[in-house]
Amino acid sequence: MKAIAGRSRIKKENWLWGYSMIAPAMLGIGFFFIWPMIQTFYFSMTRWGDFGTYKFAGFDNYHRLFADHDVWKAVLNTFRYVVLAVPLSVAISILVAVMLNQKIKGLSLYRTLFFLPVITMPAAVAMVWKWLYNSDYGLLNHMLNEFSIQGSRWLTDPQLAPYSIVVVMIWSSIGFNMVILLAGLQGISKTYYEAARIDGAGVMAQFLRITLPGLTPTVFFVFIISLIGTLQVFDLIWMMVGNPSIVKFSTQSVVYLFYDAAFLTNEKGYAASIAVLIFVLVMVMTIIQMVFQKKWVHYE
Amino acid sequence: MRAENVSQKPKFWILHTLLIVLAFFMLVPFAWMILTSFKSLGESVHVPVIVFPKSIHWDNYIDVLYTMPFLTFYFNTIAITALKVLGTLIFSSLAAYAFARIEFPGRNVLFVILISVLMVPGQIYILPLFLIMRDFGWLNTLQAVAVPGMFDAFGVFLLRQFFLSLMKELEESAKLDGCNHLQIYWRIMLPLAKPGLIALTIFTVLASWNELLWPMIVNSSPAKMTLAVGLSWLQGRHGTNYPVLMAGSLMALWPMVLLFLTLQKHFIEGIAMTGTK
């Protein structure tokens, strides 16, 4: 009896330790993130007056949201970023990772160079690319002129600007993906390659039959991370396009629209409903990825 | 990370050509940033383009210091980053230890709630969080940026994974010696978790240093701006004076480059850790 009572005392003591050790993190996260999260859902059903007062407005914001051309355009813009930047960046990253997974000269130099954009402040990245893209004085048009190619208005032509931004997104993300993919490549057992060599499989066959399938869990991870990141793009567009701008309509992302409504035009209730839309988009895209992964991801 | 000779042996010159072309693409913006920062305004807008400045114009860097309280930006950014790192390391590791090693009712539910915070986009809490900061009277203060950043769900997740991968034997013997959980955490787990703590520190520093949206929202007064917000502000004032803008950019980003070059191994291992665990 005594032993059982003692054990249950230790158990209770453990509970106390557990709760007190998680308390600082959980209370902070609860107060600064979870509580505001719940508030956003409530605010999305309110209308805001001039002096920070608000009243319940039911689904008014959502009705407006669904009828708002700017919102749908921003959603389409964001999807365009995702559809172009994510697969291209992941594909290039796989290529780079596979190339850097060999014994070659200058390996660490290459790796450093590819990684440099990852640590660089997006605000600075945006500014230098804006300068490279400058239609009058930019390096890009200058180099094209050298080859007698007519330059373009990379960031001021509404048709072209989104694609110019995609290039910067890819440039910024290759390094991060590459590092994760390299770790994934190192995890593929070498015995597979030895067996394949004995069977006389060529380089291409080895890549397609061993490297790619073995890498799919890592590719999946990189895909999800890039997807979530790209759906929330703000810094690059804010700095490269600016406000106001003639290309704003064709380039602004949903988060940009959210920022606009929340802090510039000061429609906080409407902004909250845009935030909920972003939340739904991220969730839906993640779930779609999770469902489709069964079709292409191979776990050992 | 060691390069391994996987049995593929493609023609190496193809490999190098491809790599050099890609590396060039990665490097050009940095090179152009540096070159432009040393040009005079006239040289920067010269047609045809001048690649190398005739003489080195340091005045652009001095201009940055004159037009903006850049030293204040450094101080703000460093202070905010230090607070975030401190809070994240302490609070995350405490919670991570409890989630990994102590059994208590509701543990799994609480952990799932924590993970859900990781999954949602930041915009979902940013607006009410701004209002909370306003009600606290914290707008235009450093704590408005630093304090929420001290609580990091990702940190708890990362370190929990790390703790779970550690052997239990040392702890068991410490328990027999009568150590309580706080002692085990402090004397045994933390020293063993050093690689995880270093990785978390690097992520926190990097994210904090480069963050734009939140500090821009809560601090509009130049006295409380971080470097990233300062750059956005500089662009607003110096719209087309690219030599000055590039000098400012370089002044804002060099500490991270230095940090990366000195701690490169830890950066790479840290990122690889999140991808494979």
Reconstruct the topology from this structure.
The complex is a heterodimer of chains A (300) and B (277).
Chain A: H1 2-43, E1 46-48, E2 54-56, H2 60-67, H3 69-100, H4 107-119, H5 122-133, H6 139-146, H7 161-186, H8 190-198, H9 203-231, H10 235-241, H11 248-251, H12 254-264, H13 268-296
Antiparallel strand pairs in A: 1-2
Chain B: H1 12-37, H2 41-44, H3 59-67, H4 70-101, H5 107-119, H6 123-135, H7 142-149, H8 153-164, H9 169-176, H10 181-192, H11 194-210, H12 213-218, H13 227-237, H14 242-262, H15 264-276
What do these coordinates show?
The complex is a heterodimer of chains A (about 300) and B (about 280). Chain A has helices at about 1-45, 60-65, 70-100, 105-120, 120-135, 140-145, 160-185, 190-200, 205-230, 235-240, 250, 255-265, 270-295, and strands at about 45-50, 55. By secondary structure, chain A is an all-alpha fold. Chain A has two domains: about 1-45; about 65-295, MetI-like fold (Orthogonal Bundle). Chain A has a two-stranded antiparallel sheet with strand order 1-2. In chain A, a hairpin with a 5-residue loop joins β1 and β2. In chain A, α3 (about 70-100) runs parallel beside α7 (about 160-185), α3 (about 70-100) runs antiparallel to α9 and α12 (about 255-265) runs antiparallel to α13. The longest helix of chain A is centred in the N-terminal third of the chain and has 42 residues, at about 1-45. Chain A is flat and about 70 Å long. The model of chain A has no long low-confidence stretch (mean pLDDT about 90). Chain B is mainly alpha-helical and about 280 residues long. Chain B has two domains: about 10-55, no CATH class; about 65-275, MetI-like fold. Chain B is about 75% helix and about 0% strand. Residues about 1-10 of chain B have low confidence and may be disordered. Chains A and B meet through α1, α3, α4, α5 and α6 of A and α1, α4, α5, α6 and α10 of B.
